[in-house]
Target: ABC transporter ATP-binding protein
Amino acid sequence: MSHHDPTATAAPAPDPTRDPAQDPARDLVARDLVMTYGRSGRSSAAGPPALGGVDVTVRAGESVAVMGPSGSGKTTLLHVLAGILRPTGGQVLWRGRDIARMSDRERTVLRRRDFGFVFQQGMLLPELPAIENVALPLMLDGVSRSEASGRAAALFAPLGLAGLEKRRPGELSGGQAQRVAIARALVARPGVVFADEPTGALDQTTSAEVMQHLTRLAAHTGASLVVVTHDENVARWCHGVLRVRDGRIATGTVAAQASPGSAR
Ligand SMILES: Nc1ncnc2c1ncn2[C@@H]1O[C@H](COP(=O)(O)OP(=O)(O)OP(=O)(O)O)[C@@H](O)[C@H]1O
Ligand SMILES: [Mg+2]
Model:
């Protein structure tokens, strides 16, 4: 069923789980990204760029791990792809628009509607119960409280969080808090979820659980996933790995990966 006939290029099979990956309009595409920090003009005092001309394609529904030494530009790349940082040069194409050219306001709306985020420490609001933390992005986007709560609640059981809805973040374990952060990242059904070392504060077992939930939920909703990690065991949950070195892509194996999710 999931077998793809390479001769059938003219008429893609109507399999909903494979179709998105074959529609380039739904990919996130970066071209020749350059990022130089702390330079508004052409100061010769600037150091080497944090990104020195990076091309990346994250196909719809695909998960990519970004790996590389400390300071190599992983977080910078993630922030530029996600519209958090505006690059010094290059394009980030998403649904027919260049994110790099958008106004700050447009990028704020885009981040709220199209993208989800998971950080190393969940960045949950400590005074709000877990369920309200998850519902919040929807409410900020104008969804009614009751609908937002309902959609948030529906994510607790699949993430193994049933019964923890009323707990505050300080009353959750690290792994539980990260699963709440995953729910929050996915509640608005984003096209892409960006995660910067989402398991960085967790032990190996908990980190595998978190990655299992993250990749499963992303696959279920059709979201692409970009995960920065130092951990090869975390990277194995993704379809492919981009290796960054000195602000450039050293190797990328996304397209070459034959059996996505082989770690599962
Ligand atoms: N806000 C900033 N201002 C100036 N330079 C920065 C800033 N953020 C990052 N840099 C520099 O850009 C380069 C890439 O940093 P980045 O944070 O992207 O690395 P990283 O690969 O995420 O590292 P780590 O694994 O330690 O998180 C580094 O040389 C860093 O010092
Ligand atoms: Mg980083």
User: Anything to note?
Assistant: Confidence is low (pLDDT under 50) at residues 1-21, 255-264.
